[in-house]
Amino acid sequence: MSSKILTCHQARWAEYLSEFHFSITYHPGHMATLPDALSPRDNVYPERGGFISKNPKTYQKIIKQDDIQASKFFAVKVEAFSNLIESIQKALWQDSQYRGVLQDLGKGKSVQDYSLDSSS
Q1: pLDDT tens for each residue of 26-62
Q2: Whole-angstrom Cα distance, residue 105 to residue 113?
Q3: pLDDT tens, 63-92?
Q4: Whole-angstrom Cα distance, residue 28 to residue 31?
Q5: How far is 116 from 86, CA to CA, in rounded Å?
Q6: CB 115 within 8 A of CB 102
Q7: Domain-by-domain residue ranges, the chain?
Q8: Buried b (16+ CB within 10 A) or exposed e, 10-35
Q9: Contact 44/35 with Cβ under 8 angstroms?
Q10: What is the pTM for the complete model shown?
């Protein structure tokens, strides 16, 4: 081993690997024909996502299918709720009783079971 100062992580690995009898040989440049852990080559998987398509078993899904279904359901639920609110608001203006109550409240008249809230 060289006299290089090792980090704690490297020192642990060096201590662990010292129990085994092996040698690591570095082959520079064109002599390293097959890529391995010690001589990674960036042209092995040149296109984006190439590693995943060639090694699908090593790929860990972050978003699972159940999560996608749940988020689709939630989005549909929110959209349906906002459509419901719009439908109710449109229908209210077509209701003559609602318009009458709103006009009376706007004029300052008291209407039983109704009040006008200016904050909404």
Answers
A1: 767 666 566 566 555 555 555 666 666 666 666 556 6
A2: 11
A3: 666 666 666 666 666 666 777 778 888 888
A4: 6
A5: 20
A6: no
A7: 65-106
A8: eeeeeeeeeeeeeeeeeeeeeeeeee
A9: yes
A10: 0.30
